[in-house]
Each structure stands twice: as structure tokens, then as C-alpha cells.
Specification:
This protein has 160 residues and is an alpha+beta fold. The protein contains six helices and six strands; from the N terminus they run H-H-H-E-E-H-E-H-E-E-H-E. A two-stranded antiparallel sheet has the order 1-2. A two-stranded antiparallel sheet has the order 3-6. The protein has a two-stranded antiparallel sheet with strand order 4-5.
Length: 160
């Protein structure tokens, strides 16, 4: 079945898969990933944090709803088709963290949960005169692992 038709039947208008849903070290462009991936499920079973799931058409996707990716590389080690290939795609993820206007600190509420969850300290809080500390994002330090996403109480954090 054509991917456009499958997406239409599932109520999705766009035919573009979400780039921010592929496993770490997924080869690019997406057409190359889908050509190489056999949908065997080995990477999904190998994921110790269980953030990899079988998605549309059986292709592996990553879901940060409950945890982030530890970047352990277990999924890469079991991939026999090189759909996950650090040699071709040295960064684990092409995306970086994005914070929406729903962030509590932008509404005068002290919250640093995401910063505590970030091992690379890409999310920092800088004191502000006369108010609460404001978040600063260090995109160079961000790995796109998603550890901050599941911890956000208002779901203000995503990747893109």
C-alpha cells in the first residue's frame, strides 16, 4: 500500500513521516532508512529503556513520552541492514530540544525538572533580577536524547 494512502486512511493529511520519530543514528534521507530497514523489530527489542516502538508500517519509531534515549547503541549493534549506522550518521539525532510558551518558567512558576534530567546540561537556568531563573538552551550541548521531555509536567518540551 502506498504510504500516502495509508496516512490518509489513518487520518493524517501529510505524507511526510516525522523526522523526529526515527531511532538514533538512523541514516538519512528518510527514503534510505525505509529502504534499508526490514522492520524486523530487533532494535525495538534491544532498547533497554523501551523508547523504541513499532510504528506505522512496522518501522521503528522513538517515543519520549515515558523516558529518553540513553544513547547506549544497543539498537545499532543488532541492526543487520545498516539502517542505523553511526559511520554514516555520526550524530545520534538530527533534532534538538525545543521549548514552547507553555513552559512554567515563562509564566512565573519556578520549575527546573527538565534541567535536572539533562545529563549534558544543555538546559540551564540563569538567575533573573526580580524574578525566577530563566531557562537557557545550549544547542551545542543538546544530544536530542529526550530525557527532558518525559519529565516536563506541562509537556512544553519537544524536539525539532
Amino acid at each position: 500500500m502506498d504510504i500516502k494512502r495509508r496516512l490518509f486512511l489513518r487520518g493524517r493529511i501529510t505524507a511526510q513521516p516525522q523526522a523526529a520519530s526515527r531511532p538514533p543514528w538512523a541514516v538519512e534521507p528518510d527514503a534510505l532508512f525505509t529502504a534499508r530497514c526490514t522492520r524486523c523489530g530487533d532494535c525495538v527489542r534491544a532498547c533497554p529503556r523501551q523508547v523504541l516502538k513499532a510504528g506505522d508500517g512496522g518501522f521503528p519509531t522513538i517515543d519520549f513520552a515515558e523516558a529518553g534515549c540513553s544513547l547506549c547503541g544497543d539498537c545499532v549493534q543488532v541492526c543487520r541492514t545498516a539502517a542505523l549506522a553511526p559511520s554514516e550518521h555520526p550524530e545520534p539525532f538530527a533534532w534538538r530540544v525545543r521549548v514552547s510558551d507553555a513552559c512554567l518558567t515563562q509564566h512565573g512558576v519556578e520549575c527546573r525538572i527538565c534541567g535536572d534530567a539533562c545529563d549534558t546540561r544543555a538546559l540551564r537556568f540563569v538567575p533573573a533580577r526580580g524574578g525566577i531563573a530563566q531557562m537557557q538552551i545550549d544547542l551545542a550541548a543538546c544530544t536530542g536524547c529526550g530525557d527532558c521531555i518525559a519529565t516536563c509536567p506541562v509537556k512544553a518540551i519537544g524536539v525539532g
